[in-house]
Structures are given as structure tokens and as C-alpha cells.
Design goal:
The protein is mainly alpha-helical. The protein contains six helices and no strands. It has one domain. It comes from Neisseria brasiliensis.
Length: 139
């Protein structure tokens, strides 16, 4: 299989996993890194960038919400306490999809949100890659 054809489903999975659509980007990234260990860091960058881009689509969706549609009180408390740094948790299942939407609804600075989202996504995939490379070494 051509390497390009491996990057496309990885990018698609990473993108959709960061939106309200279901996805399994961690599994797609793990398979990619295992099948193409020489290109694992390229896969890391691809997954992180497309997952961050998907979160920014969610941020944009939040900006389109009417003012009367407020995020949950729990989400609001997190943003009041930690600000945009809350977006480092956007990878967490269930609440993670809501955080970029809430950030958009709150009209937080889009560039700062994009940078923090990207950092969080890249860190998550780095941890997965570290785990995969540890498994490969010990098997």
C-alpha cells in the first residue's frame, strides 16, 4: 500500500474524531505507526494537525450558536477558572468535543485557542507514539 493512501485515512479519522462526529483516531494512528514505523513522526504530525483542525471546526460551530444556548455550568466553571488552557483537555472523551464549541461560543481568541488545541493534540499523539514504540521495542 502506498504511503499516501495510509496518510489519507489517518487524516480523515483524526479530523472527524475532533468534531461531534464519531471517530477512532487513536486506533488509526496506532495502526499507522505500527505499519510504518519509519514514518511514525510524520503520522504524529498529520494526526495532530488534522485533529486540531477538526477542533477548530467545532470552535467555529460554537461561534454560530445563539447567545441563549449556553454551555453547561461545569464547562463554564472550567473556562472561568483556567481560561483557554482548558482546551488542553479537548482530547478527553465526551467533554473534549464540547470544549472547543464552548470556546467558540464564548468568543475566545481563535489564534490562542488554535495554538493550545494543537499543543494538546500533539501531546496526546506523542504519548500514544511513545507507548507504541515501547511495545515495539519490547516485543
Amino acid at each position: 500500500m502506498s504511503l499516501l493512501y495510509a496518510y489519507i485515512p489517518l487524516a480523515f479519522s483524526a479530523f472527524t474524531s475532533a468534531t461531534i462526529l464519531p471517530g477512532t483516531s487513536e486506533a488509526a494512528f496506532a495502526v499507522f505507526a505500527h505499519q510504518f514505523p519509519v514514518h511514525a513522526w510524520g503520522g504524529w504530525l498529520c494526526a495532530g494537525l488534522f485533529n486540531g483542525l477538526g477542533s477548530m471546526v467545532s470552535y467555529g460551530m460554537g461561534r454560530l450558536l445563539p447567545d441563549k444556548k449556553r454551555p453547561s455550568e461545569k464547562v463554564m466553571r472550567w473556562f472561568e477558572r483556567y481560561g483557554t488552557w482548558t482546551l488542553l483537555l479537548a482530547w478527553v472523551p465526551i467533554i473534549g468535543d464540547a470544549l472547543p464549541i464552548a470556546a467558540g461560543w464564548l468568543r475566545l481568541n481563535w489564534l490562542k485557542c488554535a495554538v493550545i488545541l494543537l499543543i494538546g493534540k500533539l501531546l496526546r499523539y506523542a504519548v500514544i507514539l511513545w507507548g507504541i514504540q515501547g511495545l515495539i521495542i519490547y516485543t
